[in-house]
Amino acid sequence: MTAIFRLESKKRVRGSVILVAVFAVLSAMYFSIFPEYEEDAEALIDAFPEYMLDFFGLEALHTIEGFIAAEIYSFFWVLLVGIYFAYISAGMIVKDIDRRRMDLTLSNPVSRESVILQKVASLWVPLVILNTGVPVIVYGGSVLIGNTINPEAIVLVHLLSVPYLLVCAGIGILCSVLIDRVRTAQATAFGLVIVLWLIDSASALDEEYEWVGDLTPSRYYDETAILVREEYAYADAGLLTLAFVFLLGVSVLLFIRRDIH
């Protein structure tokens, strides 16, 4: 039975397309200002306190790779798209329970495991739309201004972000099966992604506490290393994938045991 999967997939199209449009506007703005920014980049970088560069993980801002990593990926992709995945996932289960739709769904010949797995599987829609639309926009923008970014790096900055985004979704799913109210579940998932990102960034400022950042998902996805240094951390992506599988497994077990009445 794949009716849930098909229905949930359709729900994800509109939001994904809107996000791509937002990234198109942001990319157009940043690519248009880079040629002028490049001329004064060194002076502007010197004006930044060093701790700010470390906090946001910024480097080589005078290059198109460093500039785009900082302006588009470090904040908008890692934080905002991560929040998006956590937020929509946090409503997947609890929303149906709150609106009395889950009883009707489970009255059909479908298991609870199938329900949650089909809902999570529908995330293929934003994953595919965002990770095909945005790289095309970024590469096209770099070509238009005459500062072409290595297409391999662009492809991998998106492919290696998939496990990170899935972990954010896993956080949302866990909130969805643990919390009884839709808004509370979504707000909790929203807040957790922000807090984990802040912990990762802040812990990088002090070697004594840097280990704390190892407990956060964003520590294992470094967009700057990929775009600027062309370093591809496949092992880190593997760890994030395992973390997602763990979060999903725990969520499935909790949902099986949950009283939805």
Query: Shape from CA axes?
Result: globular
Beta-sheet strand percentage? under 5%
Unreliable residue stretches: none
Q: Quick one: biggest sheet?
A: none
Helix content: over 70%
Short description:
The chain has 13 helices and no strands. It has 261 residues and is mainly α. The longest helix has 37 residues, at 3-39.
Chart the SSEs and their pairings.
Layout: H1 3-39, H2 41-47, H3 50-56, H4 64-90, H5 94-98, H6 101-106, H7 112-121, H8 124-144, H9 151-159, H10 161-178, H11 182-203, H12 223-227, H13 234-257
Helix pairs in contact: 1-4, 1-7, 1-8, 4-10, 4-11, 7-13, 8-9, 10-11, 10-13
Key phrases:
single chain, 261 residues, mainly alpha, 76% helix, globular
Can you characterise this structure?
- This protein is mainly alpha-helical and about 260 residues long.
- Helix content is about 75%, strand content about 0%.
- It has 13 helices and no strands.
- The chain has helices at about 5-40, 40-45, 50-55, 65-90, 95-100, 100-105, 110-120, 125-145, 150-160, 160-180, 180-205, 225, 235-255.
- Helix 8 (about 125-145) packs antiparallel against helix 9 (about 150-160) and helix 10 runs parallel beside helix 13 (about 235-255).
- About 35% of the residues are buried.
